[in-house]
Amino acid sequence: MPSAEPTPASVDESDLVPPTRNDEVARSGSELIGGPLGRRALLGTSWWNPVRVIALVAIGVFALGLVQKAPCYDGAWFFGASSQYTHACYSDIPHLYQGRGFADGLVPYFDKLPGDMQYLEYPVLTGVFMEVAAWLTPGSGSIQDQEQWYWMVNAGMLMACAAVIVVCVSRTHARRPWDGLLVALAPAFALTATINWDLLAVALTASAMLMWARGRSLAFGVLLGLATAAKLYPVFLLGPLFVLCWRAGKWRDFGKALGGAVVSWLVVNLPVMFFAFDGWSKFYTFSQERGVDFGSFWLIMAQNSSDPLSTETVNTFATLLMLLACAGIAALTLTAPRRPRFAQLAFLIVAAFILTNKVYSPQYVLWLVPLAVLARPKWRDFLIWQACEVAYFLGIWMYLAYTTSGNAHKGLPTDGYHWAIGLHLMGTAYLCAMVLRDILMPERDVVRLAGDDDPSGGVLDRAEDVFVLGAAAHRPRHAAQFDGPQVEWGSEPGTTDRSL
């Protein structure tokens, strides 16, 4: 029988993998707080265990992100169209409090909105989240006061989601809890956390990944279905999971996951679908009808063309590109010399959707941060990618400042914004390339260097392959028979592998 992923309670302290012992960047950065962990450091004998420390760090960094929005909270949201961009503190949340009828007590999906939007354009579970925040918002005072309160209430609820995310990431790879620190300290995570409501779906997805790592297939499916009821992207994780289960012959577990996802999604969506179909379908029709928008390579093409492609044509090409990416990931999964880790493929499939989609809002980086940490917890590559995302975060607001400042032209012109988009695309593609290299050369995978197989794989961890293609079909079929090089984690820090 394949061994199950150990729970944190069953992992001995000596088995933990601190990044300061095998990551040059993490070790150098640790000098700011006293240097790398020593060989005799006590990691789990007090209240200050890694998960609690990381959760507190995440809350602290999240709070810094709130401080960064202070110029808008003090008036830029209300009294200046361009100042909220020049201060890079824009958020959808206060604007949609009135713009989507919450200030007037309208019921999402059931009550029509004034203007062209007609209905709330968000998935049902996100709409519930928004409505709960509206219930908790004081209805007294000016509309500006209410919008400020609405943002603060949402910020508190989103902070809870952020804490859930870092705890789940820290516990998914039982031997690598400190990897969660990458999520907690990610600058793009803090900067974009309160732009929109994406953290709800990210928290549910991270919880689902933890459940799969623990071998709880049905719970994974239920949580993934709920995540898909909050945002579309989590459903893509079922694709690589299907191919992984095909290679390992884990059909029963995939069936539980799929069944749980379908049932939980239906439980949330069916009541609204039945009683308010027009409102429920707005999210899906809006996604199809929406034109080429910020952050995508499609926008660069459109703004540099005298005859840009129609929305329908872009939808078709974007779908074809995504299908090609899915086919490529499936082929990679079945032909790789060693079965890829679930987190690696989860990151690649979501990154493919982001790279091919016709819009990239700055908060979409939140979708990738936990998956990137689980896929390749290498500080250097993660920080390179984050630097590109921070550059894009600043670029889009400076571009909007330029377009809304009239003849003053304060901000970044169109060509400069295209360079910011290019940085985002190259940064994401770079991290995808590093993950692909780890899959094709598993001996370079930082997670597998310690002798692990697939810590986030649950029933896939060290499972025997039953279906492979190409050269992989002629290699030893049990993961344990071709583990990568072992690293003695109690050795001196100087033994770090610098080739990663």
TrEMBL record:
<keyword id="KW-1133">Transmembrane helix</keyword>
<feature type="transmembrane region" description="Helical">
    <location>
        <begin position="47"/>
        <end position="67"/>
    </location>
</feature>
<feature type="transmembrane region" description="Helical">
    <location>
        <begin position="218"/>
        <end position="245"/>
    </location>
</feature>
<feature type="transmembrane region" description="Helical">
    <location>
        <begin position="382"/>
        <end position="402"/>
    </location>
</feature>
<keyword id="KW-0812">Transmembrane</keyword>
<protein>
    <recommendedName>
        <fullName>DUF2029 domain-containing protein</fullName>
    </recommendedName>
</protein>
<feature type="transmembrane region" description="Helical">
    <location>
        <begin position="149"/>
        <end position="169"/>
    </location>
</feature>
<dbReference type="InterPro" id="IPR016570">
    <property type="entry name" value="UCP010361"/>
</dbReference>
<feature type="transmembrane region" description="Helical">
    <location>
        <begin position="181"/>
        <end position="212"/>
    </location>
</feature>
<feature type="region of interest" description="Disordered">
    <location>
        <begin position="1"/>
        <end position="29"/>
    </location>
</feature>
<feature type="transmembrane region" description="Helical">
    <location>
        <begin position="314"/>
        <end position="336"/>
    </location>
</feature>
<feature type="transmembrane region" description="Helical">
    <location>
        <begin position="119"/>
        <end position="137"/>
    </location>
</feature>
<dbReference type="Pfam" id="PF09594">
    <property type="entry name" value="GT87"/>
</dbReference>
<feature type="transmembrane region" description="Helical">
    <location>
        <begin position="257"/>
        <end position="277"/>
    </location>
</feature>
<dbReference type="InterPro" id="IPR018584">
    <property type="entry name" value="GT87"/>
</dbReference>
<comment type="similarity">
    <text>Belongs to the glycosyltransferase 87 family.</text>
</comment>
<dbReference type="GO" id="GO:0016758">
    <property type="term" value="F:hexosyltransferase activity"/>
</dbReference>
<keyword id="KW-0472">Membrane</keyword>
<keyword id="KW-1003">Cell membrane</keyword>
<feature type="transmembrane region" description="Helical">
    <location>
        <begin position="342"/>
        <end position="361"/>
    </location>
</feature>
<keyword id="KW-0808">Transferase</keyword>
<dbReference type="GO" id="GO:0005886">
    <property type="term" value="C:plasma membrane"/>
</dbReference>
